[in-house]
Amino acid sequence: MARGRTTAKVSCEDCFFHRNMLCALNLDEACATFRPDHPEGLRPPQQMRLVFRQERRVRTTWAFPTAEEQAALHAA
Questions:
Q1: Which of 2, 6, 9 lies closest to 28, judged by CA?
Q2: Can you give the pTM of this predicted structure?
Q3: In a domain, 24, yes or no
Q4: Can you tell me the distance from the alpha carbon of 20 to that of 39, in angstroms, rounded to the nearest whole number?
Q5: Alpha-carbon span 75 to 57, nearest angstrom
Q6: How many domains does the chain have?
């Protein structure tokens, strides 16, 4: 856990399913299906953002010969 960061203890009473009487479990602590109850309703958990890396190569490793290079090869 990171220093300086405090995590609030979640309980079953804070769960969306418990508050809307959708939970069939009788536990004192939050289970694996815990979802926080928000005024706007059930929201999916936040997922990681996909970040694309910058292309490192400026030049391709191989390329097709240009028309002039092909003509020079077959001219002989």
A1: 9
A2: 0.46
A3: yes
A4: 12
A5: 34
A6: 1
